[in-house]
From TrEMBL:
Signal peptide: none annotated. It catalyses: D-alanyl-D-alanine + UDP-N-acetyl-alpha-D-muramoyl-L-alanyl-gamma-D-glutamyl-meso-2,6-diaminopimelate + ATP = UDP-N-acetyl-alpha-D-muramoyl-L-alanyl-gamma-D-glutamyl-meso-2,6-diaminopimeloyl-D-alanyl-D-alanine + ADP + phosphate + H(+). Belongs to the MurCDEF family. MurF subfamily. InterPro entries: Mur-like_cat_sf, Mur_ligase_C, Mur_ligase_C_dom_sf, Mur_ligase_cen, Mur_ligase_N, MurCDEF_CellWall_CoF430Synth, MurE/MurF_N, UDP-N-AcMur_synth. Residues 334-453 form the Mur ligase C-terminal domain. This is UDP-N-acetylmuramoyl-tripeptide--D-alanyl-D-alanine ligase. Keywords: ATP-binding, Cell cycle, Cell division, Cell shape, Cell wall biogenesis/degradation, Cytoplasm, Ligase, Nucleotide-binding, Peptidoglycan synthesis. Pfam families: Mur_ligase, Mur_ligase_C, Mur_ligase_M. It is found in: Cytoplasm.
Length: 474
């Protein structure tokens, strides 16, 4: 079944097509393109026009371009437009207009991708659901996600992010959500804002795109919740609050234990108990928010609560792996918590609490006594107070339960210096240097958290630890 015909795409974009064609998908990357996709030749680090010939060779149905590139036949199936990104946006808007799907848009400083995946998991078990496979939440990711949406979609989940002021509202207006959820507001991208209230106002602008009668699902516990609620009130959006401070979707109790989270909550339908197959108080909050969003969308929140147990975090966002260091010896393994995709003080506090909830195992490694170990890379884009923010992690209540903390990067040096000497592991200028000797960082029996901003490249340490043995995702 075609997603776009040349006729429909031409009508949506106002472009000119060189041939009749029908596409079953939309792609911007020749590395992952599938036969039958419409290839969109965006300009980023490289000009997508340079890859049109390759895309067509791989079976692309057509290419969205501003001109016929060198090496491409004049009669090749092309949709020619003045501006490729603007045409992609037009495709996204046309896809949104032709569907009767109920749309959920999600933003937040922490947890928006995990929340999007939770929503995909639970809604997809009720009706036909569309969501991006990856974290496509920016100026090209949102229209691409919309352009890929089949017309017969029942539920759509759109993740919306930002790096600078003014980015969220236009993307929300493009998505036209029935429900907009804000996971939380935290110190992230502070370089582009005066303070955290500015971040809150930017996140709150997701309600600007709500359809008539739309619902804003807001975190009641974040310190800037009043900013979010005031913004939504001025836009006359219906509000649903979730968290410990909420009267309707109230988080009553969270218990973390060895890679699981048990949650007790109060909902408009009465008490509710649900379990997540990964540990994290922040995941419990997101899960409750998703249940509130499901209810606002018209889905069954009780069934969604049952199905939350099928969700697992995406790679690099809190996954739990068992690394078998020596298959010949029973029990010679360590637990790896891979949270290396992103970091700010709020998400790091949540991750440290998860690490503290684990029990290491004794008498299985060289060190004999199992340890809780954190390997931390720099937190980026925190603004002028970044030095203090890194050093203050030493005061986190979970730090006391950790045995060793390794640090990578000039910013994390401030945490390293603030730690008691007996908790200091190895500090290196870069994550690459730290990754050279993983056996010196960890041992069998340990529970190991690796976390840092993506730009810190602390994922290199994750890869090095994996190579110590044979990983089994738990």
């Amino acid at each position: 079944m075609s997603l776009w015909t040349s006729k429909d795409a031409t009508a949506a974009t106002g472009g000119e097509t060189t041939a009749k064609w029908a596409a079953t998908g939309v792609s911007i990357d020749t590395r992952t393109i599938q036969a039958g996709d419409l290839f969109v030749a965006l300009k980023a680090d490289r000009d997508g026009h340079d890859f049109v010939a390759m895309a067509l060779e791989k079976g692309a149905a057509a290419a969205l371009v501003t001109h016929c590139p060198d090496g491409v036949a004049q009669d090749a199936p092309l949709l020619i437009v003045p501006d490729v990104l603007a045409a992609l946006e037009a495709l996204g808007q046309a896809a949104r207009a032709r569907t009767k799907a109920r749309v959920l848009a999600i933003t937040g400083s922490v947890g928006k991708t995990s929340a999007k995946e939770m929503a995909r998991t639970v809604l997809g078990r009720q009706r036909k659901t569309h969501a991006a496979e990856a974290s496509y939440n920016n100026h090209w990711g949102v229209p691409l996600t919309l352009a890929r949406m089949p017309a017969d979609t029942d539920f759509a989940v759109i993740e919306i992010g930002m790096s600078n002021p003014g980015e969220i509202a236009p993307l929300s207006r493009m998505a036209k959500p029935h429900v907009a959820m804000i996971t939380t507001v935290a110190a992230a991208h502070l370089e582009a804002f005066d303070d955290i209230s500015g971040i809150a106002r930017e996140k709150a602008s997701i309600v600007d795109g709500l359809t008539s009668g739309g619902v804003a699902v807001l975190n009641a516990d974040t310190e800037t919740s009043a900013v979010l609620q005031n913004y939504a009130s001025k836009r006359e959006a219906k509000q649903v609050l979730f968290g410990q401070m909420s009267r309707t979707w109230r988080l009553n109790h969270v218990a973390l234990s060895e890679g699981q989270t048990l949650v007790q909550a109060e909902t408009p339908a009465g008490p509710l108990l649900f379990k997540l197959s990964t540990a994290g108080r922040h995941f419990a909050m997101n899960g409750l928010g998703i249940l509130a969003a499901c209810d606002a969308l018209g889905a069954d929140p009780v069934q969604a609560a049952i199905d939350l147990g099928h969700w697992a975090p995406p790679a690099g966002r809190g996954t739990h792996e068992l690394i078998t260091t020596d298959p010949a010896n029973e029990g010679e393994s360590l637990v790896l918590l891979d949270d290396a995709f992103n970091a700010n003080p709020t998400s790091l506090t949540a991750a440290l609490e998860v690490l503290a909830s684990y029990s290491p195992r004794d008498n299985v490694g060289r060190v004999v006594k199992g340890r809780r170990i954190a390997i931390l890379g720099d937190m980026l884009e925190l603004g002028p107070d970044e030095t203090a923010m890194h050093a203050d992690i030493a005061k986190d209540p979970s730090i006391a339960s950790l045995h060793l903390i390794h640090c990578a990067g000039p910013r994390m040096r401030h945490l390293y210096d603030a730690l008691p000497e007996d908790q200091r592991g190895i500090w290196a200028q870069t994550a690459a240097e730290l990754a050279v000797g993983p056996a010196a960082l960890v041992d069998a029996g340990d529970v190991v958290l690796v976390k840092g901003s993506k730009g810190s490249k602390v994922s290199l340490v994750v890869d090095a630890i994996r190579k110590l043995g044979h990983p089994d995702t738990v």
